[in-house]
């Protein structure tokens, strides 16, 4: 809803499932379009990274995330959606020094919204009549 509203207000917005983004960036490195892809992400007013933390980050993913966050820090907005509490993100990033650098940039000046209760997807499924 936040991304949709930003689009309606004229902001440039991109949404990514974070694991698909990492796959896309890996392919971009292989075909030589990595810088172009990173620049495209950097130019967006808002990026939304969904499903952070479903998989641990390897060294390549850590470096990609660090580059994205570093490029945007203090300049553009980033939304990170995760099932995990922020306190667990160090474990996902896995390498202490890079985790500290990434999380310092993410958490500094961040607005955190923690949702409680049942999943909205689960509620929708429960409300649908069985035919």
TrEMBL record:
<keyword id="KW-0547">Nucleotide-binding</keyword>
<dbReference type="GO" id="GO:0005524">
    <property type="term" value="F:ATP binding"/>
</dbReference>
<feature type="domain" description="IstB-like ATP-binding">
    <location>
        <begin position="1"/>
        <end position="125"/>
    </location>
</feature>
<protein>
    <submittedName>
        <fullName>ATP-binding protein</fullName>
    </submittedName>
</protein>
<keyword id="KW-0067">ATP-binding</keyword>
<dbReference type="InterPro" id="IPR002611">
    <property type="entry name" value="IstB_ATP-bd"/>
</dbReference>
<dbReference type="InterPro" id="IPR027417">
    <property type="entry name" value="P-loop_NTPase"/>
</dbReference>
<dbReference type="Pfam" id="PF01695">
    <property type="entry name" value="IstB_IS21"/>
</dbReference>
């Amino acid at each position: 809803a936040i991304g949709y509203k930003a689009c309606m207000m004229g902001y440039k917005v991109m949404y990514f499932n974070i694991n698909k983004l990492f796959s896309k960036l890996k392919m971009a490195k292989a075909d030589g379009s990595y810088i172009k892809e990173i620049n495209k992400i950097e130019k967006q007013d808002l990026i939304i990274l969904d499903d952070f933390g479903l998989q641990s980050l390897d060294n390549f993913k850590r470096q990609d995330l660090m580059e994205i966050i570093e490029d945007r820090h203090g300049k553009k907005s980033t939304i990170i959606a995760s099932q995990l509490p922020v306190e667990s993100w160090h474990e996902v990033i896995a390498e202490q020094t890079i985790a500290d650098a990434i999380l310092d940039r993410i958490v500094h000046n961040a607005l955190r919204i923690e949702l409680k209760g049942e999943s909205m997807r689960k509620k929708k499924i429960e409300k649908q009549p069985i035919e």
